[in-house]
């Protein structure tokens, strides 16, 4: 259609120009100029009229659709503000949007209808009261030798003074309220807070992800900062975490109450999401929550129900023991953790473990020093052994020589003794022979000689 219109317009322009040019012989040039001006102005007016028609047509053709969308949005707003029955089309229109992705955040059978905005606000207030106050984006700036930490806190932005319990849900929301003036952080001296690092956890290496810092008491407070005094002694690990937070300008969240554990926190997460959030040592408990119990599960990890999953009401352990016929299914039940007790207890255990590790490291250092000294002593003793071995060889050589010499000397002594004994025997024999000969000669002399005088040598007294 647009192409045909363009062809017609082009033919009209050609015919008009030809007609005007052919009339130049009978008209004045001023008339020709006037006629050309009127002709081109008519074409421009015609084009603008068509463009206006096109714009109006494109805009007006969506009016019905926009009016329908506006009516649906108004119905959705009224449904959110006042609540509505679950069969109202506004319910699915609201929860099929990107924000909810088709997940209805209430139990239609239990509620009976979609709760109003006032009900949701009340529930959020109840959750906030149960959670306690939280100071987000608190930035540690300094740590003292005593363990006190200086933390800056951004002033709180007060919400408009509207009580959702008495506000009219049907009233239109205010257009754009001016932001409230910033107020002090509202953290009084003497308050107890629990500090957590902001950031994502690291299941593969929990020490590298966001950590629980500890329990602190507000020692001093100014308009935009507080001085936190640790309730427990700062361990080297926590001290290093605080220093790292200061150096990297990592922010903390300060909780008035220790966050409580409950099964609903992780109920909507699949296995992949749980593994991305929790360490491998505990993630299996969260994955198995609500699944059928196994025979090896102890009594602290199982719960009785009067109907199969996902329906059924939990039966108390005493009732299950008293009347086992009520139990239709046993499901795995993760024991809830009391973080207000576990965190301090774990920190105490960490302190003991760090002390044991330091002691073991010192013992290892002492053993290394003793081993080094022993190696030096071993080298010295090895050297001495080598020298002694050499001395031993020399002594053994000398001993062998001495033994040989001793044997020779002993042999010579034996020969000498034998010779002496032989000489003594010969001397004795010679002496006896000589005495006998001398006695024989004396007797012969005495026999042949006259009688001796009374005092002769032969008659001398004995």
Radius of gyration: 59 Å
| Secondary structure category | alpha+beta
The shape is elongated
Largest sheet: 6 strands, antiparallel, barrel
Total strands: the figure is 13
Helix content: 40-55%
Strand-residue fraction? 5-15%
Return the string of H and E elements.
Answer: HHHEHHEHEEEEEEEHEHHEEHEH
Average predicted local confidence, pLDDT: 82
Please, how many helices?
11
Ranges with pLDDT <50 over ≥5 residues? 157-171, 173-181
End-to-end separation: 192 Å
* Oligomer state of the chains in this structure: single chain
Strand line-up of the largest beta sheet: 3-4-9-8-7-10
Can you give a write-up of this model?
Keywords: Coiled coil, Membrane, Transmembrane, Transmembrane helix. The protein has 462 residues and is α+β, with helices and mostly antiparallel strands. Among the domains are: 68 residues, no CATH class; 74 residues, no CATH class; 88 residues. The chain has eleven helices and 13 strands. The protein has a six-stranded antiparallel barrel with strand order 3-4-9-8-7-10. Strand 11 and strand 12 form a beta hairpin. Helix 1 packs antiparallel against helix 2.
Task: Give me a quick take on this structure.
This protein is an alpha+beta fold and 462 residues long. The protein contains eleven helices and 13 strands.
Write the layout of secondary structure elements.
Elements: H1 2-22, H2 29-60, H3 63-82, E1 84-85, H4 89-95, H5 108-111, E2 113-114, H6 117-131, E3 134-143, E4 149-152, E5 156-157, E6 182-183, E7 192-197, E8 212-221, E9 225-230, H7 236-248, E10 252-255, H8 271-277, H9 283-288, E11 302-305, E12 314-315, H10 317-322, E13 329-332, H11 339-448
Antiparallel strand pairs: 1-2, 3-4, 3-10, 4-9, 5-6, 7-8, 7-10, 8-9, 11-12, 11-13
Helix pairs in contact: 1-2, 3-4
